[in-house]
């Protein structure tokens, strides 16, 4: 998984339209519903630059952040080191591929937000991730994650998305293979250098659309218990036209 190398440099700036506060409020409401309390240890799996991680910490949880991108974690750690009282509620960041997750102990909850699970494009790898989550959850601990849906990918289809700002820009060339259910996009990022020229960076991203039935099967194969799924940011059932869903499952077997 080599995504988010060059894009890490500008990720937070281009994602400034994401309502992270609202997302965090929704996640916290789910955590509380499943008895995850203040000071409980929570793992943010695929934490990126720590936007959600830091907000969850500020809501009173103890946090571990795991991501496979060194570049994204460097930014997360830099943001963390800017805090004045670093010893008070500091976040432990670990550079790991989620398919090889290895923690020092168990956690009360695992969250994985912003379609991290879609980046696991092989079903067997997805089962492996779920099994590892199950291993590192406390007994009856909760796993909350979101997914982009097949409907969303099909809606985007073959599209070019671009954004131009004064000192940076990107071009997103998207293609969705409906047969393989793989969404791929080539990302070209242009960043203004000190000499006024623009440096170009390119990377390829691949995500897979999973049906809810496939997710339930992977959860079952991993030895976990499926609890429920929602249309994102609601308590409504998943619809055919849901673009993002949240899935909740529990540790089972300890």
Automatic annotation (TrEMBL):
Residues 42-141 form the Methyltransferase domain. Pfam families: Methyltransf_25 (PF13649). Keywords: Methyltransferase, Transferase. It comes from the Bacteria. InterPro entries: Methyltransf_25, SAM-dependent_MTases_sf. GO terms for biological process: methylation. One of its GO terms (molecular function) is methyltransferase activity. The keyword Transferase applies. The keyword Ligase does not apply. This is Methyltransferase domain-containing protein. It comes from Eubacterium uniforme.
């Amino acid at each position: 998984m080599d995504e988010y190398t060059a894009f890490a440099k500008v990720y937070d700036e281009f994602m400034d339209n994401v309502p992270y506060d609202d997302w965090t409020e929704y996640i916290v409401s789910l955590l509380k519903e499943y008895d995850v309390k203040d000071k409980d240890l929570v793992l943010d799996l695929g934490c990126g630059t720590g936007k959600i991680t830091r907000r969850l910490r500020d809501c009173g949880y103890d946090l571990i952040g795991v991501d496979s991108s060194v570049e994204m974690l460097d930014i997360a750690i830099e943001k963390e080191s800017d805090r004045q009282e670093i010893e008070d509620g500091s976040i432990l960041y670990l550079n790991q591929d989620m398919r090889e997750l290895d923690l020092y102990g168990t956690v009360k909850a695992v969250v994985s937000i912003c379609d991290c699970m879609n980046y696991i494009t092989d079903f067997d790898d997805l089962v492996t991730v779920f099994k590892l989550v199950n291993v590192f959850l406390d007994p009856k601990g909760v796993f909350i994650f979101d997914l982009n849906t097949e409907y969303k990918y099909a809606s985007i289809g073959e599209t070019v998305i671009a954004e131009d700002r004064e000192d940076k820009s990107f071009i997103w060339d998207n293609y969705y293979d409906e047969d393989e259910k793989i969404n791929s996009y080539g990302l070209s990022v242009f960043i203004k250098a000190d000499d006024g020229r623009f440096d170009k960076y390119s990377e390829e991203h691949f995500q897979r659309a999973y049906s809810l039935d496939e997710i339930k099967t992977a959860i079952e194969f991993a030895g976990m218990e499926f609890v429920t799924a929602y249309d994102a940011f609601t308590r409504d059932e998943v619809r055919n036209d849901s673009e993002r869903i949240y899935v909740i499952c529990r540790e089972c077997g300890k």
